[in-house]
Amino acid sequence: MRTYAGHSTAEASNQLYRTNLAKGQTGLSVAFDLPTQTGYDPDSTLARGEVGKVGVPIMHMGEMRKLFDQIPLTEMNTSMTINATAMWLLAMYQVAAEEQNPGMDPAEVAAKLAGTTQNDIIKEYLSRGTYVFPPEHSLRLISDMIAYTVHQIPKWNPINICSYHLQEAGATPVQEIAYSMCTAISVLDAVKASGQVSEEDFGKVVGRISFFVNAGVRFVEEMCKMRAFVELWDEITRERYGVEDPKMRRFRYGVQVNSLGLTEAQPENNVQRIVLEMLAVTLSKNARARAVQLPAWNEALGLPRPWDQQWSLRLQQVLAYESDLLEYGDLFDGSPVVEAKVAELVAGAKEEIDRVQAMGGAIAAVDSGYMKSELVSSHARRRAAIESGEEIIVGVNKFTTTEPSPLTADLDAAIMVADPRAEEAAKASLEAWKAERDEAAVSEALAALAAAAKTDANLMEATLAAARAGATTGEWAGTLREVFGEFRAPTGVSGAVGAAEAGAELAAVRDRVKATGEELGVKLRMLVGKPGLDGHSNGAEQVAVRARDAGFEVIYQGIRLTPEQIVAAAVAEDVHVVGLSILSGSHMSLVPSVVEGLREAGLGDVPVIVGGIVPESDAKALIGSGVAAVYTPKDFSLTEIMADIVEVVRKANGLA
């Protein structure tokens, strides 16, 4: 039983962890901030406004020690949501455990460590955006970690293949199963090809792979999806990899129930959604989750408070300790309805797996943009179904009348605000750390890391040496960037299929866009930008697709741009409107930088639109600073947003 937690500083997060453990939480799930996830130190230009916002900043061993102070790591089960820099964070975790147990042999300490590193980079290219290196080099880091942990940290799950984020990006159940299996195949093939694990030990590799799955509110379909996962994984590991031990073939998964379906409107409804989703992964004993973490009811509003996280923990505890759910065998064995649905999902997934494998596998399907475009298209279909009312969301597009809610009477108090001093504290910690360390030892360790990266050597030992020497997160990642290079994944927008047919509302917006363009003598151009390190690009992609459907010429360059790069693009493309998407909470730092940059570039008359998880008080402040409009998750109709935007453009250009 976990809650996904971490914010502001290592000290504050440590206090939160110890409080949650005292309340009955049985494992830790660490959220790292975006600079840590993408390999930047807090003094980097790209880290501006992002430090401590969506997780805890860990930029060196000193902060790792603080994070787990008074928490015995050899007795803990810790999940770390970390991908591109997973090897680095695992190394620091191992060194922190060694320091906690000075009288124990380091090998014995490693053997006692239990937990998971997410380490699924393929879904980062498709949905979450915290990748750093090109796919083939990222796969090398994953293979090295798997080989190392199988031999040295046998209780550790070195990779947690995540279908969760695929569903968040729009995946259907078939796509969710298929693309997860394709990822697993690419990883297992890479480990086998590396020659670091013997044939006799390969079953251990399969046995340590875990999955991280999304459970949506469509209860029957989601429950059947999990049974299909179990069936397909057993078949693939037996037939493709020859694993004979059924324990090693077991589909082991944890679940974070769906956040995509949480609503800002009538957010109290999120509680029953969360319970239904939890039941989908617990009722079916033969496909039951091993670990469950639940979002809080108010995550569509902002950062949950400790009380909100406690509520989610109590949901699990009531199910586990008050109900009789865990006392019986599988409730669905022999159900013809369930068997038929599972067979349908397995058949569809196999067909899609074959399609991806025919392209050369998951890495090739990332490079070509195929999987990304398929997800963007699926998400566009879902958005259109919600807007048309075909897919009903209670409180959003049906049953929208509501009594005043005491939960949201004071919206500013209904969420937690990350400590605004976190960035300065992190910079000060970094400066003090560098002043006290042995610079020669750090330089030597980083040089050894770079040299090893140019060979086929397993990089885990060189990474451990860098952690012990006192290197920082940014230095470790920067060293490998110089050897491996960086990567920008396809956005999926250009190949995505948007609205199959324009209803009356979209047709009217198209006419208005066209007429406005004719009055200005040029086609309307919209720049969609994602400033900062927030890689959750689903919203930005849907805005870009719908803007294109509405007749705008759309410029979308993907994630992880500085305000200066966005301003430069606006100047180069001579755009009529700039749309910024930010979900990391860094809007009050990054949006004003873009607005001011446009003014300085002579584009002060170009309106700026903002979309994301923006508290109402922040939205008012942004509009007061010159932003034309702010949209949040409650504004679910993209076509209505497009209609607003074209009127904003007309007003900015003095058109009646």
Q: Strands of the biggest beta sheet: in what spatial order? A: 1-2-3-4-5
Secondary-structure content class: alpha/beta
Which band does the percent of strand residues land in? 5-15%
**Principal-axes shape call:** globular
Q: Kindly, what is the distance between the CA atoms of the first and last residues, rounded to a whole number of angstroms?
A: 58 Å
- Computed CA radius of gyration, to the nearest angstrom: 24 Å
Number of helices: 26
Number of strands: 14
Q: What is the average of the pLDDT values?
A: 93
Residue windows where pLDDT falls under 50 for at least 5 positions: none
Largest sheet: 5 strands, parallel
Helical content, roughly? 40-55%
Fold topology:
Layout (H helix, E strand, L loop, with lengths): L3 E2 L4 H13 L5 E4 L2 H5 L22 H7 L9 E5 L4 H15 L5 H7 L1 E4 L3 H8 L6 H18 L3 E2 L1 E4 L1 H5 L4 H22 L7 H7 E7 L3 H21 L13 E5 L11 H12 L10 E3 L12 H16 L14 H23 L3 H6 L2 H19 L33 H15 L2 H15 L6 H10 L3 H12 L19 H17 L4 E5 L8 H12 L3 E4 L6 H11 L3 E6 L4 H14 L7 E5 L3 H9 L4 E3 L6 H15 L4
Parallel strand pairs: 1-2, 2-3, 3-4, 4-5, 6-7, 7-8, 8-9, 10-11, 10-12, 12-13, 13-14
Helix pairs in contact: 1-3, 4-19, 7-9, 9-11, 9-14, 11-12, 11-14, 16-22, 18-19, 18-20, 21-26, 23-24
Structure notes:
- With 656 residues, the protein is of the alpha/beta class.
- Helix content is 51%, strand content 9%.
- It is built from 26 helices and 14 strands.
- The chain has helices at residues 10-22, 34-38, 61-67, 86-100, 106-112, 121-128, 135-152, 164-168, 173-194, 202-208, 219-239, 269-280, 306-321, 336-358, 362-367, 370-388, 422-436, 439-453, 460-469, 473-484, 504-520, 538-549, 563-573, 587-600, 616-624, 638-652, and strands at residues 4-5, 28-31, 77-81, 114-117, 156-157, 159-162, 209-215, 253-257, 291-293, 525-529, 553-556, 577-582, 608-612, 629-631.
- The strands form three sheets. It has a five-stranded parallel beta sheet, with helices on one face. A five-stranded parallel beta sheet has the order 11-10-12-13-14, with helices on both faces. A four-stranded parallel beta sheet has the order 6-7-8-9.
- β7, α11 (219-239) and β8 form a beta-alpha-beta unit.
- α7 packs across α9 and α9 crosses α14 (336-358).
- The protein is globular.
- It holds the Pfam family MM_CoA_mutase.
